[in-house]
């Protein structure tokens, strides 16, 4: 379709969407998201002068690059919000565009590790995009895009897979928890051999590729991802050793990119990966929000029990019903004891993480008169605070979901930025590896 025909279609769609739903946020109709045609195709690598200004500038000054991702495996829940997404928004709002780039990715290739009908994934992608926009991720400030729109994620995964240790991957816990196996399970277990797929097993390699594709320096994630970030750092070491270290003439091997003896070549220096740092949630004790039905498991989008999680899109009555039904204990009035009373502590962690004064859970309980109160009263208090936080997000989500075609247009430019960043970094890696 040519540009003017396409622009006409978009204008018509927007008009229709607005007339159907006056609550649609105005920003979606802003000039920046609608009026300019797509950027021309990226120039060949040998013509740096015609690179987009933002990329050219980045080569001169070392920049802070923040990357994080979320799977479209369902509507995000309170754990995603308190452990990661609220942090994305804070980082976006505090970032200085002169020194910092932010990449937030809906990692739909990761979602394929637990296959389900295409129609469901398509709907989940729309919901995730709407949820991220609703909680304030702004494609004008952050590069927001779908992983499958940037082919280099999968390409870099293969490259990193070639230097990744199966032994290391087999000790990681995610494939075991997704298959509901014990943390002590190994590749030799018959149950694991029967059900484990290569995609799920190598999930951390794709996650490392996501991070390293944009040469991220900082990765905000929940506590459950600590192991994966460690693995990404391991991938950096392996890649740099294989391709960015000059060959030792005495041994006659090692190193790529034509380094030979002596120091590293220009290609090696430019390609060398930098180990990313993890940014943990900055406020409150809610590093990991636990399931409402099993407080020894983290709250998760893919948990088969819908009552185990509070969705960002739940209304006040649903939130109250789920929290009233949360598993606690029969140990009497409320007290804060994360080891002995994990179900109660989980509820307190939620309100502590939402507390505008940033009080620690024990102090908050005392000051709010929750210490020694009935568990039913604690649950009412928690329900009120959670609803207060989530209601505006739910309302915006509903507006965005009424116009799924429009929100995709909102991230078109952002996707191009991600594609250009990926292409530029892959060129560096490939040069060092001798692939170009
Ligand atoms: P899935 O069950 O499909 O793996 P998930 O709920 O674990 O879904 P992810 O998409 O894997 O969500 O993770 C998105 C982000 O949310 C990650 O940064 C992760 O660390 C964070 N996160 C996930 N669950 C929790 C939780 N219960 N508490 C805090 N942070 C969480
Ligand atoms: Mg997960």
Task: Give an overview in words.
The protein is mainly alpha-helical and 436 residues long. It has two domains: 64-164 and 202-284 and 405-433, HUPs (Rossmann fold, 3-Layer(aba) Sandwich), CATH 3.40.50.620; 306-402, Tyrosyl-Transfer RNA Synthetase (Orthogonal Bundle), CATH 1.10.240.10. Helices cover 50% and strands 6% of the residues. It contains 20 helices and five strands. Mean pLDDT is 85; it is low at 1-56. It binds adenosine-5'-triphosphate and magnesium ion. Adenosine-5'-triphosphate is lined by residues 70-71, 73, 79-80, 83-84, 221-222, 224-225, 288-289, 298-302.
Question: Main attributes?
Answer:
436 residues; disordered N terminus; Tyrosyl-Transfer RNA Synthetase; 3-stranded parallel beta sheet; mainly alpha; binds adenosine-5'-triphosphate; Rossmann fold; two-stranded parallel ribbon; binds magnesium ion
Write the layout of secondary structure elements.
Blueprint (H helix, E strand, L loop, with lengths): L2 H18 L10 H4 L18 H8 L3 E7 L7 H17 L5 E7 L1 H4 L6 H17 L8 E4 L5 H10 L4 H6 L2 H5 L11 H6 L2 H4 L1 H11 L4 E3 L5 H18 L22 H6 L5 E3 L36 H9 L17 H13 L6 H7 L7 H27 L2 H7 L1 H22 L3
Parallel strand pairs: 1-2, 2-3, 4-5
Helix pairs in contact: 6-18, 7-12, 12-13, 15-18, 16-18
This protein binds adenosine-5'-triphosphate (ATP) and magnesium ion.
The site of adenosine-5'-triphosphate has 18 residues, from α4.
InterPro entries: aa-tRNA-synth_I_CS, aa-tRNA-synth_Ic, Rossmann-like_a/b/a_fold, Trp-tRNA-ligase, Trp-tRNA_synthetase
Protein name: tryptophan--tRNA ligase
Organism: Remersonia thermophila
